Amino acid sequence: MANVAMFNMEGKEVGNIELSDSIFGAEIKENLVHQAVVLYLANRRQGTQKAKTRSEVSGGGRKPWRQKGTGHARQGSTRAAQWTGGGVVFAPVPRDYSFKMNKKEKRAALKSVLTSKVQENKLIVLDELKLDEIKTKKMQAVLDNLKVNKALVVITEESENVVKSARNLAGVETASPSTINVYDILKYDTMIVTKNSVEKIEEVYA
User: What is the 3-state secondary structure (H, E, C) of the chain?
Assistant: First the structure.
């Protein structure tokens, strides 16, 4: 099992914690990580873009001039793409960009990025993370003690004060063990997890 240092909110080392090899010491599968990131971004796309083709724009019912003898190029309608106010060639239409990965692939991708954070020493484990009030300055002080700027903070659901205190900090995002995803873990330089969150992650994704 991987053994990493555990810190308190003052940034002092207070012990060690053993991480499950099945979660934090798994084989890194880059192809699944890439697929999981593409999946996340694709599923966020609205797909509501729309432009009108020449059959959908109004007007242009009659031929603008006769076929021959005018000196102009022949035209059948003023709604063709080359005319101002004409339709768009191969216009985009609403579509669904989402696709699916099976559960085992998603889980393997998540284990891969968690393992990479441990290997890169970018996973910080805290014995606890509790704030007695909603105060952005106090949350910033914790991050300063840990010498962290951009971080994904994984905490249990009852830590509402921490969530609200971190909300206004640029480059800081909070998540619960059940809502972490590959994209967010990769997006932030450091991942901060509490001891309780580690246990929950190992329980959920075992």
Answer: CEEEEEECCCCCEEEEEEECHHHHCCCCCHHHHHHHHHHHHHHHCCCCCCCCCCCCCCCCCCCCCCCCCCCCCCCCCCCCCCCCCCCCCCCCCCCCCCCCCCHHHHHHHHHHHHHHHHHCCCEEEECCCCCCCCCHHHHHHHHHHCCCCCEEEECCCCCHHHHHHHCCCCCEEEECCCCCCHHHHHHCCEEEEEHHHHHHHHHHCC
Do residues 148 and 191 lie in contact, with contact meaning Cβ atoms separated by under 8 Å?
A: no
Nearest to 202 by CA among 20, 5, 3: 20
Residue with tokens 């603008």: 64
CB 97 within 8 A of CB 43: yes
CA-based R_g, the chain, Å: 27
**Residue range 65-92, pLDDT digits in tens:** 999 999 999 999 999 999 999 999 999 9
Predicted model pTM = 0.81
Identify the residue whose tokens are 């990493």: 4
